[in-house]
Write a structure and sequence with these properties.
The complex is a heterodimer of chains A (about 550) and B (about 160).
Chain A (H helix, E strand, L loop, with lengths): L5 H22 L5 H9 L3 E3 L4 E5 L5 E3 H14 L3 E4 L5 E3 L7 H9 L17 E2 L14 H11 L14 E4 L13 E7 L5 E7 L11 E8 L3 H15 L10 H8 L1 H15 L8 H9 L11 H14 L1 H10 E3 L5 E6 L10 E3 H14 L3 E4 L5 E7 L3 H11 L13 E2 L14 H10 L3 H7 L4 E4 L13 E8 L2 E8 L11 E2 L4 E2 L3 H15 L6 H8 L2 H8 L4
Parallel strand pairs in A: 6-7, 7-8, 16-17, 17-18
Antiparallel strand pairs in A: 1-2, 2-5, 3-14, 4-5, 4-13, 8-9, 9-10, 11-12, 12-15, 14-15, 18-19, 19-20, 19-21
Chain B lengths: L1 E5 L2 E5 L2 E2 L13 E4 H6 L1 H6 L4 E5 L17 E6 L6 H12 L5 E8 L4 H6 L4 E4 L5 H4 L25
Parallel strand pairs in B: 3-4, 4-5, 5-6, 6-7, 7-8
Antiparallel strand pairs in B: 1-2, 1-8
Classes of the chains: A alpha+beta (about 550), B alpha/beta (about 160).
């Protein structure tokens, strides 16, 4: 994990001082509301329905146990004892006092954390693959590149007032676990014919009001040019992105208006001035960044013995077996495993975690996973380096802590935005819909039989809940002051990213569990053997679903 | 006369900025002409007895000026709203691509919390929006002592200086 040097620490400390002064000036009436707005947003501070909301950056999802304990402390001291993991791997506090935010930032700075650029029309926190460094399908570890991008984007003087927000995701694996194709820029580490690694650069993806899958802007970018090429993209966007209409201001609109080919040409033309300039990464810097993300001190456990023991325990302890099957994933190092801690038990807002749980997870991280944990864009946590021989013990503790629900990748592991319960942008509530669906499908055998399935819920078209790329997507809409829910089918946020299609007219909230049940019944009636929901949908199309949900005469 | 920030100090300023749709004979004194006016009336501008500078709006491309930039002692870049960040790119292009050596001035709806970024992008004079205590605003020029990226004030990224 990256460790701050004096420069990194200095800039975060100076940010705390700057924001303390800005808050003081605002409260003293020296800064107008509209002027304070972008200043606080660039520090992750929203004024929400009930209270301010503070979004804290978790760079590419990495946290250590010290940071977890600090977050637990902040939840207790300044909030109502919990926080929320977002779909961009960040952490949100829902109840801080505006006056106390500078103190919260000072506390965060003590553990090398901040809220810089977690909102506003600037370059946001870079996100990545939660299995970075441990995935068997990885070409190269994306984390050093994420850190280089973090530093490059932090207080970038030219790009603090972009037409709109700007999100970058990086992956180094064959599978896309970071939704890179629905980001303003998606970076894929790839190998060229000469065997060198570099980046395939995607641009112009995004969700929100106009969902678009990113286009390839450059097939192969040699690694040392990453930052100057980013400068070129951002400069073209900053100068030419629309500023007359905030709904048409994202880079995706520009890429689409110009076509990806023309956009790429403009970027190349700009880049020709910047290429090989001082912003070009040096071998020393690439090495320095990589040195923070070396493999931890793995032991050499006997993999087959561990597997055998796990199989034996699973036979005796069915609950453990289910957890093992759903929440534990393959690790590249024999004898080790990747463990998901589910933040989706029924009755808890998806992605919420309490102070006591954060403390408990810190203990688990120290005890079983080299003191580190990762947040995921599906709003769970991951312990990435657990010895298989520790899994049973870990499971027992995770179960006590309330985060061993064996539902990862299933129907009840929903992505869900905070929605109308918290967010002032929302058109409808989303948490009660998630809960009603979880309660309806409380039979885990039924849920397991459905297999891998993603259900994503957003409370408005801003799409924080990624509804466009859920196998089943639910979008909250407002009709004359009433909350309704539109259903979309067939989305996917993995390598073969697809946008979902709207099924038809929307439904009232009470109808939603039954609507979902009907959709699932169509799948179960039509699937071939262990065909997934998505494959079945792609094969049979939306008509059978429409017929079941709306009746024959839809 | 208006007060502006010139480098690190608050000073009186004598430059007069002509509106974008300005026509007719030039008034006397030191003038900041709209870019298009100058492109269309170079001879009139050359015959003026005061000093001539230019101002560029946020939606105007500095490429139209290019190597002529250094004829001017002052170029101003307009920020019609402080959230319109195009001027940050314009400033860097003038300094880094067209080697502009004169005073580069940010004008319009500039807020004090942008001063650090503006200076990094090559601006050395600042006409803030109304209502600021300019002496106090000078503090915002030095909000940060660390600079990760290469820019006009520090052409080397931190990683080449670490």
């Amino acid at each position: 994990m990256y460790i701050y040097d004096q420069h990194d620490q200095q800039i975060v400390n100076e940010r705390v001082a700057q924001f303390r002064d800005q808050t003081r000036r605002y409260l003293a009436g020296e800064i107008a509301e509209e002027e304070f707005l972008p200043l606080r947003l660039q520090n992750g501070l929203y004024i929400q329905r009930l209270a301010p909301m503070l979004r804290i950056a978790v760079p590419y999802g990495l946290l250590n146990s010290k940071q977890l304990r600090k977050l637990a402390h902040i939840a207790r001291q300044y909030d109502k004892g919990y926080c929320h993991i977002t779909t961009r791997q960040n952490i949100q506090f829902n109840w801080p006092q505006l006056e106390e935010v500078p103190d919260i930032l000072a506390e965060l700075a003590e553990v090398e954390m901040h809220a810089i650029q977690t909102s506003g029309n600037c370059i946001r926190n870079v996100t990545s693959d939660e299995f970075a460094g441990v995935a068997p399908d990885e070409i190269e570890d994306p984390r050093p590149w994420c850190e280089l991008l973090r530093q490059w984007s932090t207080f970038h003087p030219e790009f603090a007032f972009l037409p709109r927000k700007f999100k970058i995701a990086v992956t180094g694996a064959e599978q896309d676990r970071a939704a890179t194709q629905v980001h303003d820029i998606g970076l894929h580490l790839v190998r060229n014919a000469e065997g060198e690694t570099g980046f395939r650069v995607l641009g112009g993806g995004g969700l929100g009001r106009t969902p678009v899958i990113g286009s390839v802007i450059r097939e192969f970018l040699p690694k040392e040019h990453l930052l100057t090429y980013m400068d070129a993209i951002l400069r073209v966007y900053n100068r030419h992105g629309r500023r007359d209409n905030k709904y048409k201001a994202r880079i995706k609109i520009l890429v689409r208006a110009w076509t990806p080919e023309v956009f790429a040409e403009k970027v190349e033309a700009e880049w020709s001035h910047l290429k090989d300039g001082p912003g070009t990464l040096t071998g020393d810097e690439i090495e320095r960044a990589a040195s923070f993300f070396t493999a931890p001190d793995y032991e050499k456990p006997d993999d087959s013995a561990a597997e055998q023991t796990l199989a034996e325990i699973s036979r005796k302890d069915i609950a453990f077996g289910k957890w093992l099957q759903r929440n534990v994933t393959e690790h590249r190092c024999p004898g080790y495993a990747v463990v998901h801690l589910s933040l989706k038990p029924t009755g808890v807002a998806p992605g919420d975690v309490t102070d006591a749980q954060l403390d408990a997870i810190a203990v688990l991280a120290d005890q079983y996973s080299f003191g580190e944990v990762r947040t995921t864009h599906k709003q769970n946590l991951v312990l990435a380096d657990v010895k298989k021989s520790d899994l049973y013990e870990l499971w027992q503790q995770a179960r006590t802590g309330g985060f061993a629900t064996p539902n990862i990748g299933t129907l009840t592991d929903m992505i869900c935005c905070p929605g109308g319960d918290f967010c002032s942008l929302a058109n409808a509530k989303s948490i009660p819909v998630a809960e009603a669906i979880q309660r309806k499908f409380d039979d885990m055998d039924y849920v397991y039989d459905l297999g891998d399935l993603s259900l994503n819920i957003s409370g408005c078209m801003n799409a924080c809940g990624h509804h466009h790329v859920g196998n089943i997507g639910i979008l909250g809409v407002d009709k004359k002051g009433q909350e309704f829910y539109q259903v979309q089918l067939g989305g996917n946020d993995e390598m073969d990213t697809r946008l979902a299609n709207v099924l038809g007219p929307s439904f009232g909230r009470d109808e939603m569990p039954t609507v979902i049940e009907n959709i699932l019944e169509v799948y179960l009636d039509n699937r071939h053997q262990d065909e997934s929901f998505l494959s079945t949908y792609q094969r049979i199309g939306s008509d059978p679903f429409k017929e079941r949900v709306y009746g024959k005469n839809h | 006369m208006a007060k502006i920030i010139d480098k690190d100090a608050v000073v009186e300023d004598s430059w007069q900025l002509l509106a974008k749709d300005f026509t007719g004979p030039l008034p006397s004194g030191d003038l900041l002409l709209p870019l298009n006016y100058w492109l269309d009336n170079r001879d009139t501008a050359a015959a003026h007895d005061g000093k001539i500078g230019l101002w560029i709006d946020s939606d105007e491309e500095v490429e139209g000026l290019a190597d002529d930039a250094n004829q001017f002692p002052v170029i101003a870049v307009n920020f019609p709203a402080f959230t319109d960040g195009r001027g940050f790119s314009t400033g860097r292009l003038l300094r880094e691509r067209y080697s502009f050596q004169g005073q580069l001035r940010a004008v319009g709806q500039v807020i004090r919390d942008q001063l650090f970024f503006l200076r990094r992008c090559g601006f050395d004079a600042f006409q803030l929006r109304e209502g600021y205590d300019l002496e106090d605003a000078l503090n915002s020029l030095c909000d940060f002592s660390v600079r990760y990226q290469p820019a006009v004030d520090q052409p080397l990224p931190l990683f080449r200086r670490r």
